Automatic annotation (TrEMBL):
Residues bound to beta-D-fructose 2,6-bisphosphate: 473, 530-534, 568, 575-577, 631, 657, 663-666, 737
Protein EC: 2.7.1.11
One Pfam family per UniProt: PFK
Pathway named in the protein's UniProt entry: Carbohydrate degradation; glycolysis; D-glyceraldehyde 3-phosphate and glycerone phosphate from D-glucose: step 3/4
Protein name per Swiss-Prot or TrEMBL: ATP-dependent 6-phosphofructokinase
NCBIfam families per UniProt: 6PF1K_euk (TIGR02478)
Catalytically driven reaction(s): beta-D-fructose 6-phosphate + ATP = beta-D-fructose 1,6-bisphosphate + ADP + H(+)
Binding site for substrate: S167, I168, D169, R204, M211, G212, R213, E266, R294, H300, V301, Q302, R303
Keyword Nuclease: no
Organism classification: Eukaryota, Metazoa, Chordata, Craniata, Vertebrata
Residues forming coiled coils: none
Record organism: Nothobranchius furzeri (Turquoise killifish)
Amino acid sequence: RWRSFLEGAVFTHNRRDLIYHFYDGIFLFPAGMNAAVRAVVRMGIYVGAKVYLIHEGYQGMVDGGENIKEATWEGVSSMLQVGGTVIGSARCKDFRSHEGRLKAAHNLVRHGITNLCVIGGDGSLTGANLFREEWSGLLAELVEQGLIEADAVQKYSALHIVGMVGSIDNDFCGTDMTIGTDSALHRIIEVVDAIMTTAQSHQRTFVLEVMGRHCGYLALVSALACGADWVLIPEMPPEDGWEEKMCQKLSTRSRGTRLNIIIVAEGAIDRHGKPITSSFVKDLVVKNLGFDTRVTILGHVQRGGTPSAFDRILASRMGVEAVLALLETTANTPACVVSLCGNQSVRVPLMECVQTVKVQKAMDQKRFEEAVKLRGRSFENNLKTYKLLAHRKPESELPTSNFNVAVLNVGAPAAGMNAAVRSAVRVGISEGHKMFAVNDGFEGFYKGQIKEIKWGDVGGWTGQGGSLLGTKRTLPAKHVEKIAEQMRKHNINALLVIGGFEALECLLQLYEARATFEEFCIPMCMLPATISNNVPGTDLSIGADTALNAIVETCDRIKQSASGTKRRVFIIETMGGYCGYLATVGGLAAGADAAYIYEEPFDIRDLQANVEHLTEKMKTSIQRGLVLRNENSSDNYTTDFIYQLYSEEGKGVFDCRKNVLGHMQQGGAPSPFDRNFGTKISAKAMQWLSQKLVETYRRGQVFANTEDSCCLLGMRARALVFQPVVQLKDDTDFVHRIPKEQWWLKLRPLMKILAKYKTSYDVSDSGQVEHVIHSRPKDSDASVAM
């Protein structure tokens, strides 16, 4: 099917086998761009195309010559972990002129290039679209000047453009997440975490200035991720008198808080358009409160560094999607941008994205509410969630629900659990509930380890790894009577369970226990939290992103250890039980040559083919190989067996090393994604529980015994969805503790293609053209875009 598609789309069209890849020189490149370069080059070569790289951006396209070079497979090796762009960039005034674009067109025709993959921001993409619109006129001029033959006009009649958005500000309409944003958040959170330790030690207030001259996304999301006390962004200036309100909030230090964090976007303004600088905020705090206050301006640190796992995967997926989009274009196809909506690839008309960016105009006219809405539903909900969690209402303004809600962690610890607990507690209190924390899961529940938890008790929890409540794998089935007794004792009216596969089993057991114990006839909700990402009903789980980053960072270091040595292959064992998510997606992000998982059975012939493939690659300029193996991928083909096989068969060509990553995948501070994902879905779960409590409250008590009152909240494609746990039983392989269908298996052919394997690629899941003006699903903000 794929081969027939290629034959129809590539080889029968005139010069459609030439793909051109370039950068806009006036654009500053965030981390993750090189992963996009690698994906476009290798996917292009895979489909039989010639791929050209143009160095030094638009200037290279205007100047031509050595700036335009044909790319090779080996030439883009060892690029995934490198930030910025390896092919350079430069400012180019020439391209803004008609004469400059005429030179650029001449250089493209000389190389037979009629397909452009543009990576950049709205300025880069707008310029490319103008170039496309002028294309036929430029060719006519070149013929008149005698620079090209007349038949070239027909031969190269159409210029096809596909864009990918790279910007740390995440300010481009039509995509949930731009390449580089997640890496920038990593840099910010690393600094914030380091600052918080010194701030606590010295009881200081820190004012952090982050990038965002016209967009406050980085400031807002980093504030949400670290639990900052105050945030200032250009889209939503504070109300008049904010100075007094901020100082009043910060003054709560006298009641036990040892630090304050204020995050300021570089473009922050007040309601009258006057800039709010970090130094102004510092002077304000010192003058009014007398606190020891320091300013840290992060600057270009946010643009640099190693790309995060998310950015590598996003860029790789978008690079492949860009090639597919170019293959399918016709002369009448408008330029499009490939992007991610939720967890799905989509294509959006380029000029719709650019023309919809009206935020600055709304801000200039002081229509700030509209400016926030124009940023998109995700930005708007981030702002609402931050306000809900950071600013506590006075007791007199809180609703009085008289409901008691318990929250507990179940199963293995996962980074982001504490952020979810903090969010649940504070949203619950804001809803008027009394919140109870259960220590050590259901084991602590039946032992009575239950206590009320207050707003201030969860301060600083967002950045903590592990589970501060404690967590155990104990299931409730054997202790339902004692658990019911504790629920009566504390009058628990609703239950929020945060955990992995064990949490799903727990809710199923409690649902079945409703027939015997009326105490379990209450609303119950589960949040998936496990590094294995093996919970049915959700595409992603809290903790999986942190584990992926740990795997990718370790693989980078391991591969670097072989620099300058002889050819070497590394065998890496990952966790995940029977679920191969970490091995597969980690392999895609780290540039692995193979990943062995339980879901895709393999035998000795497959192992032999992989060894031969690596042997062939090692005979070229490739110096290092990487093979990942899921811990339970096979009973017989163990990590030791694969290591010994590769060592024996690779003699004389490469040597071999092995490494078992173990529990380091579970530890460490949560990634920005896991902090925000846990925070947002927990807030949504608490709001759902509040709604269910009101719906099921009758005659002085809560009674909920329907299927839809015991749900799992998961991310499905583009939306957060509440799914009754009993309906998930048919979708679950309980023996191996994995879902029967897993979306990420579609990424495995992509990983193999980028590793130079000859394999089929299903194009049925490729992105479809969508329009920006179309409304997205109501909960699309819950996507991977944080």
